[in-house]
Design a protein that fits this description.
Helices cover about 80% and strands about 0% of the residues. By secondary structure, the chain is mainly alpha-helical. It has a domain of about 45 residues. It comes from Candidatus Nomurabacteria bacterium RIFCSPLOWO2_01_FULL_39_17. Keywords: Membrane, Transmembrane, Transmembrane helix.
Length: about 80
Protein backbone atom coordinates (compact mmCIF):
# COMPACT_ATOMS: atom_id res chain seq x y z
CA UNK A 1 0.00 0.00 0.00
CA UNK A 2 2.80 2.41 0.92
CA UNK A 3 5.96 1.18 -0.82
CA UNK A 4 7.89 4.34 0.05
CA UNK A 5 7.29 3.77 3.77
CA UNK A 6 8.33 0.11 3.64
CA UNK A 7 11.61 0.96 1.93
CA UNK A 8 12.39 3.67 4.47
CA UNK A 9 11.43 1.34 7.31
CA UNK A 10 13.98 -1.24 6.21
CA UNK A 11 16.70 1.42 5.97
CA UNK A 12 15.76 2.74 9.40
CA UNK A 13 15.92 -0.72 10.99
CA UNK A 14 19.32 -1.42 9.41
CA UNK A 15 20.60 1.97 10.57
CA UNK A 16 19.37 1.43 14.13
CA UNK A 17 20.94 -2.03 14.35
CA UNK A 18 24.23 -0.69 12.89
CA UNK A 19 24.28 2.16 15.41
CA UNK A 20 23.42 0.00 18.40
CA UNK A 21 26.13 -2.54 17.64
CA UNK A 22 28.88 0.06 17.30
CA UNK A 23 27.63 2.20 20.19
CA UNK A 24 27.37 -0.80 22.51
CA UNK A 25 30.84 -2.02 21.63
CA UNK A 26 32.40 1.44 22.00
CA UNK A 27 30.65 2.04 25.35
CA UNK A 28 31.73 -1.37 26.60
CA UNK A 29 35.34 -0.70 25.55
CA UNK A 30 35.46 2.74 27.15
CA UNK A 31 33.96 1.42 30.39
CA UNK A 32 36.40 -1.49 30.45
CA UNK A 33 39.34 0.93 30.13
CA UNK A 34 37.87 3.34 32.70
CA UNK A 35 37.63 6.23 30.23
CA UNK A 36 34.72 8.14 31.74
CA UNK A 37 34.92 11.17 29.44
CA UNK A 38 34.80 9.03 26.31
CA UNK A 39 31.95 7.01 27.79
CA UNK A 40 29.85 10.15 28.31
CA UNK A 41 30.68 11.56 24.87
CA UNK A 42 29.83 8.28 23.16
CA UNK A 43 26.62 7.95 25.17
CA UNK A 44 25.36 11.47 24.49
CA UNK A 45 26.34 12.02 20.85
CA UNK A 46 24.55 10.07 18.16
CA UNK A 47 26.72 10.01 15.05
CA UNK A 48 25.33 6.85 13.42
CA UNK A 49 28.41 4.90 14.44
CA UNK A 50 31.03 7.27 12.99
CA UNK A 51 32.42 8.53 16.32
CA UNK A 52 32.22 5.02 17.78
CA UNK A 53 34.21 3.53 14.90
CA UNK A 54 36.78 6.35 15.19
CA UNK A 55 37.11 5.69 18.94
CA UNK A 56 37.55 1.95 18.53
CA UNK A 57 40.05 1.96 15.65
CA UNK A 58 42.01 5.19 16.28
CA UNK A 59 41.78 6.02 19.98
CA UNK A 60 41.87 2.44 21.30
CA UNK A 61 44.00 1.30 18.32
CA UNK A 62 42.20 -2.00 17.98
CA UNK A 63 42.64 -4.03 14.84
CA UNK A 64 39.87 -5.60 12.81
CA UNK A 65 40.79 -9.03 14.19
CA UNK A 66 40.42 -7.77 17.78
CA UNK A 67 37.03 -6.26 17.01
CA UNK A 68 35.82 -9.45 15.31
CA UNK A 69 37.03 -11.53 18.26
CA UNK A 70 35.24 -9.27 20.75
CA UNK A 71 32.00 -9.32 18.72
CA UNK A 72 32.10 -13.13 18.51
CA UNK A 73 32.78 -13.35 22.24
CA UNK A 74 29.84 -11.05 22.98
CA UNK A 75 27.51 -12.95 20.64
CA UNK A 76 28.47 -16.30 22.14
CA UNK A 77 27.56 -15.04 25.60
CA UNK A 78 23.98 -14.42 24.40
CA UNK A 79 23.50 -18.03 23.26
Amino acid sequence: MYPYFSQNYIVLVVLVVWTLLWKGYALWTSAKHNQKKWFVVLLVLNTVGILEIFYIFYIMKKGRADVRKDFRKALSSFR
